[in-house]
Design a protein that fits this description.
Radius of gyration of chain A: 26 Å
Largest sheet of chain B: none
Shape of chain B: elongated
CATH class of the largest domain in chain A: Alpha Beta
Structural class of chain A: alpha+beta
CATH superfamily of the largest domain in chain A: MucB/RseB, C-terminal domain
Number of domains of chain B: 2
Distance between the termini of chain A: 39 Å
Distance between the termini of chain B: 69 Å
CATH architecture of the largest domain in chain B: Orthogonal Bundle
CATH topology of the largest domain in chain B: Arc Repressor Mutant, subunit A
CATH class of the largest domain in chain B: Mainly Alpha
Radius of gyration of chain B: 20 Å
Number of helices of chain B: 9
CATH architecture of the largest domain in chain A: 2-Layer Sandwich
Number of strands of chain B: 0
Strand content of chain B: under 5%
Oligomer: heterodimer
Helix content of chain A: 55-70%
Chain lengths: 278, 190
């Protein structure tokens, strides 16, 4: 074992992450003054760093503030139940039919037609799947585990589940991942949700001549990839194309949030595509 | 005034809340210190910590007892801080192309004993956030690489390369301070 090898791996040794080579490094350090001086130097710097970081004082009121906000949230979380009871009572008193009519949600066809009627062709491709699956599919009350969803997408695309969960805006959780077909087009679809906030990663094979740049101007370049964005009918869409695929991130989370998530995902999505496009 | 009359027995929700308080709140100080170093601002750090506990409480049903509660909370904290940063700067800073070997070789070795706390804090705060985050998790909070990778949602190889780069940057910053004190000459390397 050379001094250079020990020097390169010194930090991993101190981190106890060197594995089987640990013993050999320990022996080397016992007989090498230079390397053991480096060990002492690195170790003392870490101790100093730890000491300094720990010396930051924590505001005395913070614990009380956190507890109070937790108490408030615990109480607030009961209100939806109370409102549901109140709504049921009102429905009985004033007639369930009238209420149902007034609050009846729009049908899938209505939303789909309105959203895609004036949308650019390249946006329509992703939007229609988001609306069909993410907005109108019924999900199980308890979302499957991320592992199960990863398995659902198979070896090549299973990694998308983790990528989406890692980069979606705060509070959203992946609840669905599947392969689907809509209007003769195949898709891979990952959905994350938090209440009424919904975000979809939609991937579909790129048809002949299809390109974002035909319809839109790129707004930013991330990891060498030109990203495009648009807001058709209240949806936020960010997307890019590779040689074989179109990728969309579609949501109602807001422009900045949607684009920030897409930018964060892009390098890892490109890695996934680079493996399947060989 | 009580909205719900007491039954004389702790409700299931109260029991869950007690469990949460016992498991999660002891980590408040570590979370705040890390948030403080990440944000550089006491108000934002407090907000991030409060949001972390609120998010943790919301998803406590999904937390598996016996797993690493501390790592779980740090993961939420980093999510919260990233979320805040997106608001402050519109987009997160991402990207790295550092080489592990390059980061480990040929960096000056500052003498820790000769440096003040202020030198170290200032050096730490000058490191780009993605590198500082890993240094804080591994060197200060003593998380294993695997836990740090889980917290940051990146592969373990990324943790290792960011850590090497972050430590090298820190040593370079501190070597600058040491040179200013005359305890490390220009170009001197141990």
């Amino acid at each position: 074992m050379t001094c250079e090898w020990v020097r390169v791996h010194m930090d991993r040794y101190l981190d106890r992450e060197l594995g089987p080579a640990t013993e050999a490094v320990t022996q080397h350090l016992a007989g090498c003054t230079e390397c053991s001086a480096l060990q002492v130097s690195r170790q003392s710097l870490r101790q100093k760093l730890r000491g300094v970081a720990d010396s930051v004082s924590v505001p005395g009121h913070l614990s009380a503030r956190v507890r109070a906000s937790l108490d408030h949230q615990s109480t607030a979380s009961r209100w939806p139940q109370l409102l549901a009871v109140a709504a049921a009572v009102l429905a009985v008193v004033f007639g369930g039919g009238q209420l149902a009519k007034r609050f009846r949600p729009e049908s899938e066809d209505t939303v789909l037609t309105r959203a895609t009627r004036h949308a650019l062709p390249i946006l329509r491709v992703g939007l229609q799947d988001h609306i069909h699956c993410a907005m109108f599919q019924k999900y199980p009350a308890k979302a499957p585990t991320l592992e199960a969803l990863t398995a659902e997408l198979g070896k090549d695309f299973g990694g998308l589940v983790r990528i989406v969960q890692t980069h979606v805006p705060l509070g959203l959780h992946v609840i669905e991942a599947h392969r689907c077909q809509f209007k003769d087009r195949k898709y891979i679809h990952v959905v994350a949700r938090n209440g009424d906030k919904l975000i979809s990663l939609v991937i579909t094979p790129r048809g002949k001549g299809e390109a974002f740049e035909n319809d839109l101007q790129s707004v930013v370049t991330e990891a060498g990839t030109r990203l495009f964005a648009a807001n058709p009918e209240g949806f936020q869409v960010a997307g890019f194309e590779t040689g074989h695929y179109l990728a969309y991130l579609i949501s109602n989370t807001g422009d900045a949030e949607n684009m920030a998530a897409m930018r964060a995902m892009t390098p890892e999505l490109r890695e996934v595509f680079s493996r399947v496009e060989i | 005034m009580l909205i719900f009359p007491s039954t004389g027995r702790a409700s299931r929700a109260q029991m869950r809340r007690s469990e949460f308080d016992a498991d999660a709140l002891p980590h408040l100080d570590d979370l705040y210190r890390t948030a403080m170093r990440l944000t550089g601002d006491p108000t934002r750090a407090e907000d991030a910590v409060q949001e972390t506990f609120l998010q943790a409480w919301k998803s406590f049903e999904r937390f598996e007892p016996g797993t690493n509660c501390r790592a779980w909370l740090f993961k939420i904290l980093f999510h919260c801080v990233n979320h805040q940063r997106r608001k402050w700067f519109r987009f997160p800073l991402m990207g790295e192309n550092e080489e592990y070997l390059e980061a480990n070789l040929a960096s000056p070795e500052p003498v820790a004993a000769a440096l003040t706390d202020q030198d170290i804090l200032a050096a730490l705060d000058r490191i780009p956030l993605e590198f500082k985050a890993v240094v804080l998790l591994v060197d200060v909070e003593e998380f294993a690489y695997r836990d740090a990778a889980e917290i940051l949602g990146v592969p373990i190889g990324t943790v290792m390369s960011r850590l090497s780069r972050g430590r090298k940057l820190l040593r370079e910053q501190l070597a600058g301070a040491a040179r200013a004190y005359g305890i490390l000459k220009d170009n001197q390397q141990q």
